[in-house]
Every structure is written in structure tokens, then in C-alpha cells.
Design a protein that fits this description.
The structure is a homotetramer. The first copy, chain A, is an alpha/beta fold and about 325 residues long. The first copy, chain A, is built from 10 helices and 14 strands. The first copy, chain A, folds into 2 domains: about 60 residues, 2-Layer Sandwich (Alpha-Beta Plaits), CATH 3.30.70; about 250 residues, Alpha-Beta Barrel (TIM Barrel). In chain A, the strands form 3 sheets. In chain A, strands 7-8-9-10-11-12-13-14 form an 8-stranded parallel β-barrel, surrounded by 7 helices. Chain A has a 4-stranded antiparallel beta sheet with strand order 2-3-1-4, covered by helices on one side. In chain A, strand 7, helix 2 and strand 8 form a beta-alpha-beta unit. In chain A, helix 5 packs across helix 6 and helix 9 packs parallel to helix 10. The interface between A and B is large, with 56 and 56 residues.
């Protein structure tokens, strides 16, 4: 950490700054420039995170040097992690395609969808039983009944199941049924929930919050990993900006940035990013071209009748086209589908 | 709701659109323009919220007419609501000043702070026992011990206590000790938590999320109110933008917008908006000038030693100056302090 | 256009609204709902753009139906436009790769770069003679001397030249030398400049502004086209958001959105979007996968010595790798390189 | 400037980094930490602005220490600047209220408006003769005829005139008529225009761009000042964010930030920030409470008939109320009106 002091800082202030830092472990180094004096902190700076540096008299600004996450960082963990989901892994050479409806609406629609997406090449089934909705008047999921349906359809199709958990009290329940627990964008900084799923040994699909920097996403992953659960999948699903031709702004560059910063697998959610089904293929191809390890895509037998997110769900034919269209891009990226 | 159809929409599609809408209650009205045909929906449109309109063949765009919140809306509830906090109310003519440290760090620092801010005119005490922190390595609060300290200091000073709840499992515990439960910005769309605090009869201070539109904030309030708890205080605390001279961008205009849209009281948090103590007075004066019903301000006996948010906490003298400086602005706004 | 009136609007107000609209041409249609009355405007609404609708008594909100651009719109111009640049076209099946240094720094560096990028497959040469710089203390280009160097290198290599124009007074000068005139992001809403380049018959590369919606970009193109110059190329180069791991946030979805909304060719600028050379390949592959008609990429013989934007410039070897890596993605997208 | 090197940087790389820097003037200082080695640059760093630091082998990140603006900075110029406009000054104790229509539409409407706002206490008259409009189909001003009308009305009322210049070719023309030349938000980084108005001795009202950081605004001012024109007024008028209840997001905190960073006067434009007239009073009071030196407000005799920005223009009665409401806030802020 580099501490920039204000013009005219006194020797007493400089001494005090150095004592304050050194009491927490790091050594300090003083460099006097023509206009400013700078204090450089050297050594383990873990404990500096709790210090309100700008409150120390004489300090004007602070410039961090180290990354604030460690377990998630690729530094010291150069090899990419692969996470086991059912019989396959994500993060290796083969792409993972997680597909299914926004919400589990009933057994037959989920069966139909699962059979179709499996035949088309999907490697896992998504479907929400507990649904976060901006309005309290919107459909919020079938709850445990939805979980049971997911489990039944897995038994039939063999597709591992990805489903969201929203409440610390439901973590054990959801973990009973799900192969992968999803933390939604709105809960990315629900630290109690992150801590709770960190106690599981089940993979966690962590979606980026709408106003989360890449660093915030990695710190959220760090919360889970700090509890011992290293099976975290990161998901880029768009951030909130002024642009209104799409539901969110798909931050494509976050994919290669994450692949450089972390060893964790990265998937993209083109459905939520776009909010419109017509853009899903273009965003999917681009995500794979940019290095994503997989996709999570909404598919519904009859989107017009969907109880949530129908506007961004593909019909079966569209999903087939997507998979067909994806093949050459997967190959171009050196991946298998 | 107004449904804009695509150029060349067929009569069959138009019939289908109208049937789909009317099956849910509303009547429809067809208007054929030169370029576009428009379907107008009339009547109670509650159930349309679940319909993926863009998925109905022939639909190109949808334009809502009604506001999506009802209980929070000022329409049909013209009179401003006043919420009781301890012996005083918020939302009436008198301004509420909630002050105290970011985190409860111990009994003596809280006592000292509470005595001081009370003497200077504060009407309630803030202090976090459960702390949401971006990094899992940062101090996250004293937990129940912190709640007990808050309660002890209330007993001594008579100041009602505002403290954050982060987990559905802690709602009852926090409600035992707190006069007002705070929902933090990162949990504004933690719908399980909103629902849970909606079951209490205790006031809820609901902070705006970093990427929440004003409408999202009102829908979050609606979640709480739908459960029967009408005692919701809304808090503008800054949104996340590209500007980096402040921690967040204080959306001052949200204050008068909220005062028009809702009957609920509105407070401002200049400390989190700015992230720097030197800006707190200017933001506080502006918030009151713009019509806020109160402030929530961070104060610490020795910010340099604070375990969280020290950089934005006022020292006692600064808080005294703030209160002195605020008086003429309160008067200019026709409010009492 | 749909006009939503306030609750309790009077008949006199409704009459006045309709008279005001009809005086400008459109017919109106009144629909009375349970809560609101709506006025629908039918017919040519060109003149409504100048009317401050919210200022008419009784009006609460306005919902546009029509797109505000016509010449740029794909509606009524379904076929994609191809723009001639030198001997090749952009917007057809073959991808255009515009490469070169940020700034023209001298003859030999430009010659060297042009020869190299041409050999690697570039179809045009970029290079700035007039440079917009955030700081007045930064290098701002060689001016006319730079234009002459560009022209000399074109004569030698046959590569058509793309260079920026910043000032209405320089339009004729730049047009003397350039094959394509570039309007930079900071000048996207410099309407005098747009109008001036609209009078040329030379292609214009129009970069999206940092805070421009897709609609704003299309309206800026419309300014140029309204003057008679239909040879406009649109360029996605990232928007400004809170994310700071990249210089801008590459709005990949804008590419397929633009391809749907307009018949104009669309290129992507991965260099400015990322601001870091290591991300340029991933963004390039993704842009082509998403449907872009070409790329504009910064290449420099020795980025460390570049006078501007060196951090995002590829060295020759990296450009060769980019072109090699791009080939399979171009093929997957059904394009030729 | 602090240069952070990558883990494993070699001695050769370090030597090269230091040579590269020192060749440009600054001295360097090497500090070896446990994980990273840091190179500190000391001395005049003016020339480093052109160096692409990340392109130097071994460099991982760069942290600036110095502010990039000098003439605009309050450092070394502690006293606030006052700028003469007509017979009064802006930046001193008396607030400046610049009022008038968005566009000059004709002599009588401008006369009427000028007389009214003067009687109510305005100190200058605003009105656009050249209008930047997002759509090429919208009214774009009366041009020189509008300037003449402004000049005639000044002659009658004695109010100095503020009007926008959009094109380098019009600078001399506008300067013939205007007391203050305005640079609009869309031209804040039109560097040719900034340079051109920097050659005048006339005050310049510089509006913040929609995606400009405070630092960008100060650098734009620096462009003007570098040419010798120190009479720059800065204007906060809202930035573009995801929030859509207002036209722009009024960044109130920018006012006290600017007052700390620069000696230049700061005014606020509540009309463009809000985009709705009902919010103009609240934003105006807040701006003054936060330390603004003045306001620029849109007023129109009949906004419903305005050819631009009618929705945000106050009618005469509303302007009178605004001025009456402002008085106690001005007094609370220790300012005169």
C-alpha cells in the first residue's frame, strides 16, 4: 500500500503514520519528493484493510498495490480449476451448457424441456424453485415442490440440476436436491448467504451483481472459498448502465479479465444480459469466442405462457439452432461441445 | 399497458394478443395507425405483470401506464406518513437526526458517542452489530454482544436505536434489541429478508441499492408493506456510477422524486454517499434543502481507530459544527431541528 | 406517440391536448380507462419532436411509438449497405480490418506498420494526425504533416487511410488526404461537425460516444445522412461505466442490436474498449462472433515509445497472432478475411 | 507517479524502467517489498503523461500521485477566483442567477422574459441562438438573428447575456454579441473549441459532459486556461446513469468537490439535471446549500409553446416562487441574492 501525504505534512504526522502502520505488522519506507512525501508499506498487509487511512492526520490519498483476494486469485494457483458437476466437469476443455426454464412451472414442462435440451447437447438443467422478483406481486416460484420436480427430472434424464437459493434458512433444503446452488445477482453481496453456502461441498454458481466490479465478484467468491468450498463458478450476466436497448449491459470483457485474474471457471448468461431472445445467439457465440467455459441459457417450451422471463427464453427450435450455430465457434476456440 | 405491434402484424395475431390479455381480466382496445397498430389494455392489470408480452407473436414493444407499486404510492394516500421512533416521529415537521458510529466497537465508545450526539441534538443512535463487508477479511461486527451494548446505551440515554439486520435468521434477535431495523444497500433486493421484516411491527430503514432505480426502491418497500408493516423509512445513500471523486454518487434528486411518489418518510445518508467526511456537511445541508425528513450520519470518537468506515465518520467537534450549520437550513426549509 | 393524462384530467384539458397535437398534423384518438385517459397520436409525427408535451396541462407522461431515425433505420431499407473504401467494401461478406498506430508519429514508423499490417491481412490503415487528448499537456498530433505522411504511405502500400477530423475548419483539409474520415467518441454529438462531414461524399467512421445510447449513435448517423452522405460506418468502442478493470465497458450487445436496427456497417474497436493490449484478441474474436463487419485495431512497432495509447497497441507479432486467431472465428461466422 | 512491477521482474527490466523515466527528467527511487518492487518517480512529471507505462516490460500497474491540472487547481491558488460578468461578479459572496429561455425564439418573448427575470432578481440572461439537438429534425436555433435579439434585449435591460457556441467557426461571431460564451455538455471535450475560446478574454461557462468525471471537467477548463483565458465558470448539470426518473443524475457532491479542487466559480443547472420543472426548486435550494456560486435556470413565458426544453422550463410565477424560496437558503449559506 502506498500512502500519499498532503503538502506540508509535518514530521510528527509522518512519525505517527508510520507507527500506526508498523503496529499492525508491515514495515514502512519514506520517500520525499519535491511536492509530496509518500509512505510505502511493505510486508503482509492483511490487517490494513480495517484501517481508515484517510482519517490519520496528514494522509491525503491511498493507493493499494496488492489484490484484495487470495484464494480466488490465479496468482499462486496458475492452473485453471475444474469443478465437477454430475458426471462432467466445468472449466476444462469441454464447454458446459446449462439450459432450462427460468422457473420450474410443473413436471411435464420441465421433463419436456430437459429431454429436449439434453438431446441438443446441454450438460446441465437449470430451473428456479425460489425466484427473486422485483415486484412482490410477481410469481415467486413453487418452492420445495419445484425442487422435487427438478430432482425427479434429473433421475429421469441424468442431467445435473442448477437452482437458486435465496435465504440462509433454505440452504440445506436446496442442497438436498440441487447439484449446483446458484447465488443470484441480487444476492451477490448477501454475505450471510455466501458464508452459508461456503460450508457446503456442493458447487456454487455465483452471478455477478448488477453494480459489482470484477473485484467485488472475486471478493464474493472469496467469502465462499474462505469457508472451505472451493467449487465456485463465476457468471457474467450483465451490469446496469444507461443503455436501454438491452435489459443489462453484457460486460464481455469481464470474461477474459476473470480468466486472467482467477483460476475459477467462468460462464456467461446471455439470456439475462440481453433480456431479449433475439440477441441470445450473438451473445453466446461471443462469450465462447472470448474464452467462457460455458453458458447458462433460458429455454421454455412455450415462452408466451412462461410465468417469468419469457421474453428472453428460447423455444426448442431456437435452442437447437443455437447449439448448431455454436459448434464452429467452440471449435474455433479450441473447445469441445 | 399499451402494446405496440410489429409492422405487418396479422389479424390472427391481433386476435390472439387480445384473447391472451382479456383472459387475465383487462379489456382491450385496438387502434390502427398508419404504420403501427396499438393494443390498449384497460382495467385492473395486476396479473399482466407475469406475462412475457414480447413473446406473444406480433408484439414489438410494451409501454406501461400504471405505476407498479400501490401501498407505497402517494396516489390514494396523499397525506405524508409519520413513523414513530421511540418518543419522536419521523416524517413530520421535525427533522430526525440519526447519528453514531458505523460499527459498535464496545460499550464505552458507544456511550461516549451517544451522550455527545444527544447533547448536540441527535434524535436516534445508529451503530452496526452485524456488518456487511465487501471483503471476508474485514471486521464484521460484534453480533449479539453489539446489540446488547446498543440496548444498554439506549437505556442510559433514551436514544432509540437503529441497527442493521442481514440474515432472515437474525430478524427476531435484532428486533428484540432494535427500535428500527436497517436493511442495507446490498440487501435491498434480498426479498426473503424484506418479507421477513415485513412481519414485524417495528420501523424499517430501507437503504437504496447501489444500482436500484427509484422504482426498485419503492418496490422493495412494497415487499415489506405487503406483509403488513407500513412503517418504512426510505434512505438515499448514493448510487454507483463512473465518478470516482466520491465513494458513491449522491442522487439528490431522488429525495424530491420520492417525496412526490410516496407518502413514506425519506432520509439521506451523506456519509456513505460521500465516503469522505469533508463533504458530509455540504451533502447534509443540501439534503434538507431538497426536502429530506432527516439524516443518518456516521460519528466516531476517534475515526482513525475505527474498525470500519472511519474515513467518512465525523469527530465530535465536526458533528457539533454540522448541527450548528444545519439549523439555518432547517429553518429555511420550514422544519424544526 | 401515446400521451398519458393525469388522474382527474378535465374535458377542457383533453380538448386542448388534442387541438395542440392536431394543429401539427397527426390525428388523435381518445381512450378512457378506469384510472387514466390516454391520447393516441396517429399519422406523421415528425413535428411532435419539438413539442414539450409535459408542459401541456393535464399531461402526465409520454410514450413514443416510432423510432426517431429514418435514414439510418433498417425499416424500409432491409438490405445491408456496403460502403466502398479504396478497392474493397465494408458491410459485405468480407471482414474489414483497419489497423495502425494511434498517432502518426513519422514516416518510417508508419511505413513499417503499414507494410506489416498489410502483409498480415489488414484492409485499411488507421493513424491520427489530429488527436483529441483529455489533457492539454499531451501530444495532440502532427496535423497536416501527419496527413501527408498517411497519403504517402497509401501511395506506397495501396492501403486506404482512416483518420480523425476534430474541427469543422479542418474537414476539407482532412478530406483531401483521407479515404475515411473518423468522428471520435468525444465528438459524436458535435452536431456542427456531423453536418459538415455530411456534405462530403467520403465514408465517415462514426464512433459511439462514451455515454451515448444506441439510439443516440443512430441519431448522430442520421445527422450525417440527412446532408446526403449515406456512407456511414458505425463503431462500438465501449461506454463509460463503474467497472474499472477495463478503460471502457465494451457493449458487445450493441453490435447485434445495431445490425437489427440499421442497414449501416458496424465495426468494433477492441483497443479503446479494453485500454489494455492483452484483452484485444478476446474482444476481437467476440466482436466478429457477434456479427461485426470489421475491426479497427491499434498496432505500433514499439508501443513503449508510442506518444499516445501505447498501452493498448499491439506489437507486430501480436497483430499476426490476432489475425491467425481470427481466421477460424471469421469462418465460423460465415465471413471471409 | 508510482510504478508497480510484476512479480518476478528482472534487474534488467528495472534498470530499463528507470532509464526510460529518468531520460524524461524525473528521478526514480526503487523499493523492494516481499511481493512487489515499486519504482517511485520524483520531480516534475509533466512529460510522463505521454508515456505508455504499461508497455514497458515488467510494469504491471501505475498509480498517479499528482493532479493532472495545474492552472485550475486550488493548490497554489488558494483564493477563490471571481469572474466579472457585466457589472457584477460571480464567485464572490453574491449569488449569480442566470435565467432565460432554452432557445431565443423571437424578440418579444425574450424581452418579456428578460424583464420578468430581472425584476425577480436574475443577474444575467440565458438564451440559445445555436442549439445542439440530439435529433437532426429538431429546431436548432435562430443563429445570428438570435444573437442580435439577445444583444438588443441586453441593451434594454442591462442584463449580461450567456449563450452557447458550438463551432470553432462561430466563436468570433458569438463573442461579438455575448458577455459569456457557453460550452455545452456535448462539447466539453471538443478540444478545438476549448482552445479557440481560450483565446478570448470573455468569460466561458463550461458545462460538465454527461460522462465526464470531475477530473475531466477540470482538464477541459485547463485547456481554456492554458490559452490564457482564466475566466472559466464550471457548471454541474447532471451525469448520465441508469436512473430514469430524471433526465440526468444531478451529481450534487461535485459542487463541494469542485470548490475544494479549484479556485474557479461553480454554478448549477437544475433544469437540465432534472429535465422536469417540478424538481427545479428542490435542486436549486440544494445546490446553494452545497456551496454553489450561482444557478442557471430555464424560464419561458409559455413552456407549452417552447421550441425546445419546454418540459423543464419554469413559467414566470414559478420563477418568482423559486427566487422567494431561495432567499432563506442563500442567507443560511451566508450568501446574498
Amino acid at each position: 500500500m502506498i500512502i500519499i501525504t498532503r503538502p506540508g505534512v509535518t514530521d510528527e504526522e509522518l512519525d505517527h503514520i508510520r507507527e500506526r502502520i508498523e503496529a499492525l505488522g508491515p514495515r514502512t519506507h519514506l520517500i520525499r519528493g519535491e511536492h509530496r512525501t509518500v509512505v510505502l508499506c511493505i510486508g503482509d498487509q492483511q490487517d490494513l484493510v480495517n484501517v481508515p487511512m484517510l482519517s490519520i492526520p496528514g494522509v491525503e490519498a491511498v493507493r493499494p498495490v496488492m489484490k484484495p483476494y487470495k484464494l480466488a486469485s490465479r496468482q499462486g494457483h496458475e492452473e485453471s480449476s475444474e469443478v465437477q458437476i454430475g458426471d462432467s466437469t466445468i472449466g476444462g476443455n469441454a464447454l458446459s451448457i446449462i439450459a432450462g426454464p427460468c422457473s420450474v412451472e410443473g413436471l411435464s414442462m420441465l421433463q419436456e424441456t430437459a429431454r429436449h435440451v439434453k438431446a441438443a447437447g446441454a450438460t446441465a438443467l437449470r430451473g428456479g424453485a425460489f425466484k427473486p422478483r422485483s415486484s412482490p406481486y410477481a410469481f415467486d416460484g413453487l418452492g420445495e415442490e419445484g425442487l422435487k420436480i427438478l430432482s425427479d427430472v434429473r433421475a429421469e434424464t441424468g442431467l445435473p440440476v442448477v437452482t437458486e437459493v435465496m435465504d440462509t434458512r433454505q440452504v440445506d433444503l436446496v442442497a438436498e436436491y440441487a447439484d449446483v446452488l446458484q447465488i443470484g445477482a441480487r444476492n451477490m453481496q448477501n454475505f450471510s448467504l455466501l458464508t452459508e453456502v461456503g460450508r457446503l461441498h456442493r458447487p456454487i454458481l455465483l452471478k455477478r451483481g448488477m453494480s459489482a466490479k470484477v473485484t467485488d465478484l472475486l471478493l464474493a467468491a472469496e467469502y465462499i472459498m474462505k469457508q472451505g468450498n472451493m467449487n465456485v463458478l463465476l457468471c457474467e450476466r450483465g451490469i446496469r448502465t444507461f443503455e436501454d436497448s438491452t435489459r443489462n449491459t453484457f460486460d464481455l470483457a469481464a470474461i477474459p479479465v476473470l480468466k486472467k485474474e482467477t483460476h475459477l471457471p467462468v460462464v456467461a448468461d446471455p439470456s439475462h444480459a440481453a433480456g431479449r431472445r433475439d440477441l441470445v445467439p450473438a451473445l453466446s457465440y461471443a462469450a465462447i469466442a472470448a474464452g467462457a467455459d460455458g453458458l447458462i441459457v433460458e429455454v421454455h417450451p412455450n415462452p408466451e405462457m412462461a410465468v417469468s422471463d419469457g421474453d428472453q427464453s428460447l423455444v426448442f427450435d431456437e435452442f437447437d439452432s443455437l447449439m448448431a450455430g455454436l459448434a464452429p465457434f467452440a471449435e474455433a476456440a479450441g473447445r469441445t461441445l
